[in-house]
Amino acid sequence: MLKQERALITRQQIVNGAAEMFDRVGYERASLAEIVELSGITKGALYFHFKSKDDLAGVVIEEQHAISMKAVEAISSSGAPALEQLVMLCYEMSREIIEDSIVRAGIRLTLEMSAVGGPREPYVDWIASCEHVAAAAVAEGDVVDTVVPAELGRFIVGAFTGVQMVSNVLTGREDLYERIDQMLTLVLPGIMPPRRRHKIDRIRAARWTPPAEG
Is the whole-model pTM more than 0.85? Predict the structure, then answer.
């Protein structure tokens, strides 16, 4: 194995271990010593790749954001009706949160660090993406034209964030899919024109399947 390739593997090993620790206990309670132990590497290897815990947290947030934006781009180019894309985004983000510790850690870190001037870009970009899809849904006639896309985009992101946080507190996110379905059941009738509401069940059932790796 080439030295550069081995270094990249070690770096990702550290990021994965840090994500797991941040997901478990948050930024303040996570220690570099615990991250070293969980990652199965030496302290020297950690400091070779990262200057500090803050530096490491920033990389976890960046990786989470990249994962989420990759899904947004794929769903946006899926060819599905825009309102179905909005539903797909909610369920795909839910799946990522449930299955990927980097996504869970990145979201937790972004929320925790927002109190001290942490990064806003993940939420700004997510809102902008939802706004773009909402505008397309209005243009396609599945959302009433009195809805302001920027407001709907911000609302969907805010509602999703609250739903997943409460689901985590009460059930460890075991009921997250169910709660997202309830959220959509409440929201969709209020934004769809009466002539399109016969499609609500189909729209609620819209899902995007990530391509198989390898």
Answer: yes
